[in-house]
Design a protein that fits this description.
Elements lengths: L7 H4 L7 E2 L14 H10 L6 H16 L3 E5 L1 H15 L3 H6 L9 E5 L8 H4 L4 E5 L7 H7 L4 E7 L12 H10 L4 E4 L12 H5 L3 E5 L10 E5 L1 H9 L2 H6 L13 H16 L2 H16 L8 E6 L9 E6 L1 H4 L3 H10 L4 E2 L8 E5 L7 H14 L1
Parallel strand pairs: 1-11, 3-4, 3-5, 5-6, 6-7
Antiparallel strand pairs: 2-8, 7-8, 9-10, 10-12
Length: 382
């Protein structure tokens, strides 16, 4: 590395820093707060403040900027899902709030499309809810949801991915229509749905009662998330939080999910930056980085690169790298393993069910894009 002090703080601990070519993944640290966020967080250190008040004022500021009724800062998007689930089960009944995760006497079923089961639906169960599938692995219809709603239904959960909508799933609009006709709230996991700006908070504006966003994608600390929703849903969600646990002395399930005052102020700054910044400049930089990765790989037999230019969501540009194992001598997984074993390690991945590498530039610092491309190319030069 050109910078001799790169990663020193980790090396001093005996840990090994890596070049992050995967993107904004939690296991590698998620994000690096942008300068505007760091400055706001530093300013927040100058005084203490009651966090119940700060949550309320910060939420109001975020809600205004995002044009939604209400907002709340949580310990990541996963925390928002857990708190919202608890809120839809216990409401504002302090006895029920303190009873969770024991859901005896409460509506405790969260409906979810069988086609939409995913890694993070575990967050819904942490408050004591039971996930109930509807529809089949092949498709979901309105009738499937209508039949699934019963006396124990607390909410319907929806997993939103604007980049690749599932034509065989029940749409969010239909989900809202069916659920609300039966008096059932709808909650949406939209952790990475932040760009174009018209999808930033879109689902609450469509009529969902709640949606979450991972603030790490905005340049905030990875340990912050945004809960957006109706005023009633967010008020009840706040009753489950760590600040309510201490400020009201009511023991909600959110006590372990702490957010400090600096992070709250940083999250507000991140939202302000996101809704006012020059996104064309941001995208142009990401494209330049992606092309820098691709440049050293041109002309290598058996290696094919493609620019990923879908700018919807949180990963605007990147590089798809495919390997013809017979022609180049490596499978994608072998390339991943060799990059991790190098110095410094470069982390990429082959996802389950895929045979190619997706390189995202979100986590690459200045010059690391070129290093990633050159290191991959070096594997084929022997």
């Amino acid at each position: 590395m050109a910078n001799s002090s790169w990663g020193d703080v980790y090396k001093e601990l005996g840990a090994r820093p890596v070049i992050n070519a995967i993107g904004s993944v939690t296991m590698l640290g998620g994000s690096t707060p942008v300068p505007e966020v760091k400055e706001a967080m530093q300013r927040a250190e100058s005084a203490y403040i009651p966090l119940m008040e700060l949550e309320e004022r910060a939420g109001e500021a975020i809600a205004r900027m995002m044009n939604v009724p209400a907002a709340y800062i949580t310990s990541g998007a996963g925390s928002a899902l857990t708190l919202a689930t608890a809120a839809f089960m216990a409401g504002d009944d302090d006895r029920k709030i303190q009873q969770l995760p024991d859901t005896t006497g409460m509506k405790n079923e969260i409906l979810i499309q069988k086609r939409q089961r995913y890694w993070y639906d575990r967050c819904l169960e942490l408050a004591g809810a039971r996930l109930v599938e509807f529809g089949t692995a092949e498709r979901t219809t309105r009738n499937d949801l209508e039949r699934a709603i019963g006396p124990e239904t607390a909410a319907v959960h929806y997993y939103a991915v604007e980049q690749s909508p599932d034509p065989s799933a029940l749409s969010l609009q239909e989900t809202i229509e069916v659920a609300h006709a039966r008096g059932v709230p709808v909650m949406v996991d939209s952790a990475g749905q932040i760009y174009p700006l018209d999808i930033f908070g879109k689902y609450v504006r469509m009529g969902a009662d709640f949606q979450c966003i991972a603030a790490k994608y905005l340049g905030a600390p990875q340990s912050t998330g945004l809960a957006l929703g109706t005023r009633d849903a967010i008020r009840k969600l706040g009753l489950q939080s760590f600040v309510s646990y201490e400020g009201r002395r009511i023991r909600g399930v959110g006590r372990p999910q702490k957010v400090d005052r600096q992070e709250m102020v940083g999250a507000v700054a991140a939202v302000k930056r996101w809704v006012t910044m020059d996104h064309e400049e941001r995208l142009a930089k990401a494209e330049r980085q992606s092309r820098a990765v691709m440049a050293p790989l041109r002309g290598i037999r058996g290696v094919k690169t493609q620019l990923i230019d879908n700018i919807i969501g949180h990963q605007p540009y990147g590089v798809k790298v495919e390997f013809d194992a017979k022609a180049c001598g490596f499978t994608g997984q072998q390339v991943v393993d060799r990059l991790k074993a190098g110095d410094p390690p470069i982390w990429t991945r082959v996802r389950e069910g895929e045979d190619f590498i997706l390189i995202h530039v979100f986590g690459l610092y200045e010059g690391e894009d070129r290093i990633v491309g050159e290191r991959i190319a070096a594997l084929f030069r022997g």
